[in-house]
Amino acid sequence: MRAFIMIDLPKDIKDYLFNLREKIGDDAKIRWVGKKLIHQTVKFLGDVDNEKLEMVKEKLNEVKFESFEVSLSEVGYFPTQKDIRVLWVGLEPVNKIIELQHDIDMKLSDLFKRDNRFEAHITIGRVKNVKNKERFLKSLESLEINKFKFRVDNFKLVKSVLSKDGPRYFVIEEYNGV
Predict the structure, then answer these.
(1) Are 84 and 127 within 8 A, CB to CB?
(2) Whole-angstrom Cα distance, residue 17 to residue 122?
(3) Candidates 5, 17, 33, 39; catalytic one
(4) From residue 158, how far is each of 28, 38, 57, 163 by CA, in Å?
(5) Exactly one of 96, 107, 121, 156 is catalytic; which is it?
(6) Does residue 121 carry a catalytic annotation?
(7) How many domains does the chain have?
(8) 26, 29, 55, 74: which has the highest count of C-beta atoms within 10 A?
């Protein structure tokens, strides 16, 4: 099964992020992330068999963290201005998210390769092509993000099922902070 670890977002944050697409304009062809699917990925695991899944669940139960508050920050893109492929919204402060990701990464280090390139971000769309790059970049630069705050008090191990209609997520287990 295809699996990953995520921080889920409150419904009002998902609604807000989903509706940002209306403010970005139509200077690019973008495949938007579905409202229910918007999240912060902490670690992508890939294909995991049932035996390995049980080990993952055991190790994730050992992750201890204090809940923390974050807020939405700016809109950005990956990988470069010349080749925009992913639109994202950042979170701040990033240090708590990076700490949690590092703790999870360390617990799973004997099962999965460590992720040395982790960047805290919420993907909101995948850019297929840009019709007018100058106007598109200006629309992103002028976009003011509401600094909504929310509490991160858990993370989830999720199964991702790919279909012709896009991915569907199923929570396998939830891990709570203190």
Answers:
(1) yes
(2) 9
(3) 39
(4) 30, 13, 11, 16
(5) 121
(6) yes
(7) 1
(8) 74
List Cα–Cα distances, 3 to 42, 47, 115, 123, 156, in angstroms: 11, 6, 15, 17, 10
Rounded Cα distance, 75 and 77, in Å: 7
Mean pLDDT of the 24-45 span: 94
Question: What pTM was computed for the model?
Answer: 0.93
Mean of pLDDT values over 64-81: 95
- Does the annotation mark 39 as catalytic? yes
Question: Which ranges of 71-151 does DSSP label H, i.e. alpha helix?
Answer: 94-107, 133-142
Q: What pLDDT digit, counting tens, does each position of 124-167 carry? A: 999 999 999 999 999 999 999 999 999 999 999 999 999 888 89
Q: How far is CA 134 from the centre of its chain?
A: 27
